[in-house]
Every structure is written in structure tokens, then in C-alpha cells.
Amino acid sequence: MIRPIVKYPEPSLEEKCVPVEVFDEELKNLARDMLETMYAAPGIGLAAPQVGVNIRLIVLDPTAGDENGHQMVLVNPEVVEVTGRQKEEEGCLSLPGLTAVVERPFSVRVKAQDLDGNPVEVEGANLMARLLCHEIDHLDGVLYLQHLSALKRDLLKRRIRKLIRNGEW
Ligand SMILES: [Zn+2]
Predict the structure, then answer these.
(1) Are 123 and 91 in contact (CB under 8 A)?
(2) Is the distance from CB of 6 to CB of 51 less than 8 angstroms?
(3) What is the DSSP pairing of strand 72-83 with strand 86-91?
(4) Are the CB atoms for 74 and 120 separated by under 8 Å?
(5) What pLDDT was estimated at residue 160?
(6) In terms of Cα–Cα distance, which of 67, 96, 79 is closest to 134?
(7) Cα of 5 to ligand 1 centre, how many Å?
(8) Where exactly are the structural domains of the chain?
(9) pLDDT (tens digit, 9 = 90+) per residue, 6-51?
(10) Of the residues 25, 81, 88, 135, which is catalytic?
């Protein structure tokens, strides 16, 4: 089931999410819905708070579903190691139509659990590192806006306010 995506400036997007402790059918259903919602958007990553559920769960697929075998569901993900830096254009399904250049680590190592609670470890570089950092940020209530300079952030916020005023958000 495709769920509505929560958009900025909904305050729940800026709240810290709680860890997942119960690995039940409900969790699996939510992950399935999140993947469906992400592919329909279309997007390459989605965090549970973006569908209004403030728990530590993310889904991603850097190919946006174009290739099989790249889909990933991570529960309670945590960045445990970062290397290098990269600066690339980044967007967010909760900030539709907008992008900004955001600095991220070049590569990351992430510890997480799968939908059955088993420990998993993921390493990613380039886009994958950016994606992992972006989605895990959501679980701490952090949007990419917070990584921008105050000037750029205010510029984007002004554009969003204008879009809201015009009923285009
Ligand atoms: Zn996002």
C-alpha cells in the first residue's frame, strides 16, 4: 500500500525516532509499504518518519527499482565508520522539487538489523554513502537543510514558504 509522504515543515520530521524492538508482521508490512511508496514517488530512499511512523527503519534502492537486487531494508541502522568527503546535489521526498549541494562522507560503514532482528553490516561509497547518511539522518530528525549554510537554508525555506502560499507544495 502506498502511504502519503510527510512533507516539511511537519514537526514530526524533526523529531528523534525510537529504536525498533519488536520484529513482527506489522514491521514487515510497514517496510513493504515504504518500498512501494518509495518506488511510486519515485525515489531511491525513504525513512519511516517520512510516512508518519517515528521508528528507526529505512528502505533504499540506489537504482530506484531499475535493476533487481539493490533493494535494502535496514532496522536500527547506525553509522559506525566514515571515510573521506564528497559534495553532490541531493534531494528529499519530504522536500519535493528542491535540491541542494550537501557535503557527506565519501564512504560509510553501517551496522543495522534485518526485519527478523539479525545483525547486518553494510558498506557504501559515493551515492550509496550519501543515501545511507541521508536516510539515517531522518531517524534523528535531521533534514539535509541542516547541513547547508544559514544563507542557503534560509533561501530554500523562503522558496518553500512561497510554494506553500501558492498552494504548490
Ligand atoms: Zn529525505
Answers:
(1) no
(2) yes
(3) unpaired
(4) yes
(5) 96
(6) 79
(7) 10
(8) 11-165
(9) 999 999 999 999 999 999 999 999 999 999 999 999 999 999 999 9
(10) 135
Whole-prediction pTM value?
Answer: 0.96
Q: CA-to-CA distance for 71 and 83, rounded, in angstroms? A: 24
Ligand 1 midpoint to CA 138 (Å): 7
Straight-line distance from the first to the last Cα atom of the chain, in angstroms, rounded to the nearest whole number: 23
- The CATH topology of domain 11-165 is Peptide Deformylase (3.90.45)
The DSSP secondary-structure symbol of 167 reads: T
- Tell me the C-alpha distance between 110 and 63, whole Å: 19
Q: How far, in Å, from the CA of 93 to the mean position of ligand 1?
A: 5
Asked if omega into 96 is within 30° of 0 (cis), the reply is no
Q: What is the pLDDT of residue 44?
A: 97
Triad 59, 52, 60: Cα angle to 5° = 10
Rg (CA), the chain: 15
CA of 25 to the centre of ligand 1 (A): 25
Query: 65: how many CB neighbours lie within 10 A of its CB?
Result: 15
Residue 10 annotated among the catalytic residues of the structure? no
Distance 165 CA to ligand 1 centre (A): 22
Q: pLDDT (tens digit, 9 = 90+) per residue, 71-110?
A: 999 999 999 999 999 999 999 999 999 999 999 999 999 9
